[in-house]
Design a protein that fits this description.
The protein is an alpha/beta fold. The protein has 10 helices and 8 strands. The chain is globular, with a radius of gyration of 17 Å.
Length: 261
């Protein structure tokens, strides 16, 4: 079985003009057993939650992306929504708080706003004893500094983009590392080195769909079932069977969510 630990289903549905049923059928046909719907702004929380509730093999997150607006009211709404999910006894559907972090590449939000939002959301994760799903682009040092300061209980560095040295810094935090479709790109040699370095009990794989479509499908819009291509490429880098990679990532997934899907 395959697992896509990071996808934006609402964007995929809009991009492909497909139905929810069509997309879920495609997952089943490609043996993608579980997937995670990632929230990026307040207006996606309710859709993500209901999407997960409708589909037992879909988990979801609650979080405000560093490129999204995060006013004080937005952050309070996020905390209240998280409490609502916990009180509804739906903790087992909630993959974590994310995606949150820093993005100094796009800079769609001022740096100070990004840091304030990031730190506030880390506190929400600690309050509700939830893992965090981290986005960090061109902001590695500051991201790691804040994580070391706030010390979330558990975390996943989504769409890892560094080399082996950077991977070690993330692993030293006790985090898992997730690789996306850009791992399959020929010129991504730093990523290849990092993937070889990361131990199999600390890795997950994702699509970040509809972005970062893997080889051999580059040029198309990404969808969650394409995670199978990243699995196969990763297995080749590790010189392991695809079945072993599937089993290890499944066990990591269970360890992360701490529930039995």
């Amino acid at each position: 079985m395959f697992i896509d630990t990071h996808a934006h289903f609402e964007m995929c549905l809009e991009e492909r003009k497909a139905t929810e049923e069509d997309m879920l059928s495609s997952l089943k046909e490609n043996n993608v057993t579980y997937a995670v719907q990632i929230s990026t702004e307040v207006k996606t929380f309710d859709w993500s939650y209901k999407f997960s509730k409708r589909n037992k093999n879909i988990f979801f997150t609650i979080g405000i992306h560093p490129s999204s607006r995060a006013t004080e009211n937005d952050l309070i709404s996020m905390s209240n929504f998280t409490q609502k999910v916990i009180e509804a006894n739906d903790r087992d559907r909630l993959f974590g708080i994310g995606e949150i972090g820093l993005d100094y590449y796009r800079m769609r939000q001022p740096k100070d706003n990004q840091i304030r939002s990031f730190e506030y959301q880390l506190e929400i994760a600690k309050k509700f004893d939830l893992p965090v799903i981290i986005h960090s682009r061109d902001a590695k040092d500051e991201t790691l500094k804040i994580l070391k300061s706030k010390q979330p209980k558990k975390g996943l560095m989504h769409c890892f983009s560094g080399n082996g040295k950077a991977a070690k810094e993330v692993l030293d935090l006790g985090f898992f590392i997730s690789f996306a479709g850009n791992l399959t790109y020929n010129k991504a040699t730093d990523l290849h080195d990092a993937a070889k370095f990361v131990p199999l009990d600390r890795v997950m794989l994702e699509t970040d769909a509809p972005f970062l479509t893997p080889v051999p499908l580059r040029g198309q819009k990404n969808v969650p079932e394409y995670v199978t291509h990243t699995y196969r490429f990763f297995a080749g880098l590790k010189n392991e069977s695809i079945n072993k990679i599937e089993d290890d990532i499944y066990n990591n997934f269970l360890n992360f969510v701490k529930v039995n899907p």
